[in-house]
Amino acid sequence: MSRRRLLAIAALLGPLAGCAVAPEEDPVMIRLSDLDGRVARVERVLTNDSLLDLSKRIDALQGEVRSLRGSVEQLENQTAGGSKQQRDLYGDLERRLVALEAGASGLTAPGSGSAAVPGDELAYERAFNALKSGNYPGAIDGFKQYLQLYPTGASASNAQYWLGEAYYVTRDYGNAAAAFQRTAEVWPTSRKVPDALVKLGYTQFEQKRFEAARDTLNSVVQRFPGTDAARLATERLQRLPNSAR
After folding, report:
1. pLDDT band at 73 (very low <50, low <70, confident <90, very high)
2. Burial group, residue 3, by CB count within 10 angstroms (0-12, 13-18, 19+)
3. DSSP secondary structure letters along 68-120
4. What is the CATH number of domain 118-244?
5. What is d(CA 46, CA 166) in angstroms, rounded to the nearest whole number?
6. Span 139-154, mean pLDDT?
7. Would you call 241 exposed, middle or buried from its count of C-beta atoms within 10 A (0-12, 13-18, 19+)?
8. pLDDT at residue number 91
9. How many helices (H) and strands (E) are present in the chain, helices listed first?
10. Distance CA 201, CA 228 (A)
11. 0.85 cut: is pTM over it?
């Protein structure tokens, strides 16, 4: 990371650290710089066309993305109520993480792909690629079209989940909540259900529906103990107002 970029981040986060703390000593700035570097490393790996031992790389990437998600949650908690610039900075990290999650999920080891109908696969990949590239309106349109054409397709539950993510990063929380809720209700055995319920809880939190968020996040902790979803749900529960706990 360049010195200019570090100084820009320090300028954004300086008010949180107190005037007496030098930028290079600000613990929040240090953690954010580390997080930015980790995101960049995963982004580089996901664009590397010469990956070796692909299945191990997939596991490592997905584990790193889950770790990054937790780090963003912690840093967001530390800087709650910060300036618009700070919120925008974390919004950028959120968007990059969604793209990373999509990229890591989209990787498949040799021989592990399913025999999808060509039209089904093409429609899903088109929407998925739009999401990874940050074209959220295109991703929303693509996933909605996929779900209309292939409501029982092999990737239908994934399409519904990523539709929710695309709405979430654009702060369309009403549609995001509906998309995550539908993922859990229509595909109750999908591997996306824990993540969908966590993000439903996040969305309810952003809508200030704190009691609903509490109930949703508690259900994740109870239904999926010991998982990354349960850990993220627990962290968000700790941020609820005391009156909603």
Report:
1. low
2. exposed
3. HHHHHHHHHHHTTT--HHHHHHHHHHHHHHHHHHHHHHH---TT------HHH
4. 1.25.40.10
5. 20
6. 94
7. exposed
8. 63
9. 11, 0
10. 14
11. no
* pLDDT(155) > 70: yes
pLDDT of residue 47: 53
Whole-number Å distance between alpha carbons of 117 and 187: 20
Q: How many CA atoms lie within 13 A of 93 on its CB side?
A: 24
For residue 188, what pLDDT is reported? 96
Pull the structure tokens for residue 119. Answer: 């039209």
Task: Tell me how far apart the alpha carbons of residues 40 and 34 are, in angstroms, rounded to a whole number.
Answer: 10
CB atoms within 10 A of CB 33: 19
142 contacts: CB under 8 Å, gap ≥ 6: 123, 126, 127, 128, 130
Q: Which residues of 213-232 are buried (b: 16+ CB within 10 A; e: fewer)?
A: bbebbeebbeebeebbbbbb
Burial readout 167-199 (b: 16 or more C-beta within 10 A, e: otherwise): bbbbebbebbbbbbbbbbeebeebebbbbbbbb
User: Is pLDDT at 112 greater than 50 in this prediction?
Assistant: no
